[in-house]
Amino acid sequence: MRFDVITLFPELFAPHLRHGITRRAFETGQVDVRLWQLRDFADDTYRRVDDRPYGGGPGMVMLAEPLQRALAAVAADREEPRPAVVHFTPTGRRLDQALVQSFAQGPGAVLLCGRYEGIDQRLLDAHVTHEFSLGDFVLSGGELPALALLDAVARLQEGVLTAPSHQQDSFSDGLLEGPHYSRPEKLHIEGQEQAVPAVLLSGHHGDIARWRRERALETTARRRPELIAAARAAGRLSKADERFLAALKL
Asked: Where are the domains positioned within the chain?
């Protein structure tokens, strides 16, 4: 798959693509990332890509024409007349694991990283196919959401993680993950001895799987009860799950 990133700050991406476990996906070309400097598509000496908003107000608005030229250049290079174009904005749909999984199985997209007060709406109306948000807060630009999407997609590629790590991630089955433990078996914290739950040392795979499922259910019910409701509506909760949730008496 291929992701073309149109940005004013391509240098922000290089460190992420070269480090960490997800670099495997980028180095092998499983996730081909190409960076496009938007200023290269400006048509004046100052390489200007923004101007004051009509109607007045603070800040600057990214101009449509440089973005149109950049999108046309990307489309020609991809030999694909209408690739998916993603715009990151607080008004977009919340990016979630289901969306990440759909992109991880697709051909990629063009990632449009806005800055300043935003992008001329006429450009968005004509070219953007998806609008995503990381959450109910405002960032300085689309680069961090683009990196988040690239990271989330890369880690789902074959051979990047030790299978089946990503299958046990939070949200992979609609629930949050439960707690994890490692060495030492007994740990002294703040003057108290904290031990690893005995079931995890038992070697009984069935008991361990049940414990992990129950901890995931408990964590989700306490922190994100709406996910329990969604899992129930989708038929992903068993009778044993429902009995355990009822016993929590939250």
From this structure: 2-154, 170-248
Known active-site residue 43 = no
22-42 per-position pLDDT tens digit: 999 999 999 999 999 999 999
- What does the alpha-carbon distance between residue 55 and residue 211 come to, in Å, rounded to a whole number? 59
**Please, which pLDDT band fits residue 171 given cuts at 50, 70 and 90?**
low
pLDDT computed for residue 244 by the predictor: 97
Tell me the C-alpha distance between 70 and 57, whole Å: 27
**pLDDT for residue 55 is more than 60:** yes
Residues 175 and 232: their CA atoms lie apart, in Å, by: 11
Mean pLDDT across the chain? 93
- How does strand 50-51 pair with strand 186-189? unpaired
| Helix locations, the chain, DSSP H | 14-18, 23-27, 64-78, 97-104, 121-127, 143-154, 205-223, 225-233, 239-248
Could you confirm whether 10 is annotated as catalytic? no
Active-site position among 131, 151, 169, 214: 169
Among 80, 117, 173, 214, the one annotated catalytic: 117
Please check whether the two domains, 2-154 and 170-248, share a CATH topology: no
Active site residue 44: no
- Which of 4, 50, 145, 155 is the catalytic position? 155
pTM summary value: 0.85
Give the model confidence (pLDDT) of 204-250 as tens digits.
999 999 999 999 999 999 999 999 999 999 999 999 999 999 999 88
Q: Is 58 known to be catalytic?
A: no
The second-level CATH assignment, the architecture, of 2-154 is 3-Layer(aba) Sandwich (3.40)
- Annotated catalytic residue, options 90, 173, 214, 232: 90
**CATH class for the domain made up of 170-248:** mainly alpha
